[in-house]
Write the structure tokens for this entry.
Amino acid sequence: MGKKIKIHREGYKIILAALAVLVTVNVAVRLIWPGLPLVHNLILGTSVLLMAFVMFFFRTPARHVEPDPLLIYAPADGKIVVLEETYEKEYFRDNRLQISIFMSPFNMHSNRYPISGTVVYTNYQPGKKFHARSPKSSVLNERSSIVVTSENGTEILVRQVAGALARRIVTYSKKGQQVRQGDEIGFIKFGSRVDIFLPPETEPKVQMFKQVRASRTILARIV
């Protein structure tokens, strides 16, 4: 037998709400237009597809990681849209290697820690709703930043960024928390991106537009 699909806890309320709305719509259509079976079947089929998508969006696969302090794993599923040295002005205030991952609504949206270590900084900032592919979304959109210090002293900033469709960023990180590579950082609902800021001498292991998977793809190596 195949593995069971697990639904993320952030999806329970939304799935139940969507189910209630779709059941109501289907009942209402049958009561208002009782003699139109083609319309009934069309609405029912559309409802099933919508429910399937919502459940698919909130899937949360188990991904075991054997921690390695020298490897930086992808914190999210998606496509690499930024791979460059840039000035990070919120925490480091110096040049860092930035790698950004764009998550479409079809990607798994649970975010994971790229390294093991101690959470030394967290900061949530409300913001705008620019498209997550836009460079300005990293500094103007709603976002949540988390800095982790690894056992060898390397500091890495992970930033969850809301996109045009995202309506809520959920971050579980707490300052002083001990975290393990592959543990869950949080969840972003409906389209977004994740930025990661690394020491400039870090050796990247990915290329632009590469599809990556959280806790599966190695983004970079600490040197």
Remarks:
- Residues 12-32 form the longest helix (21 residues).
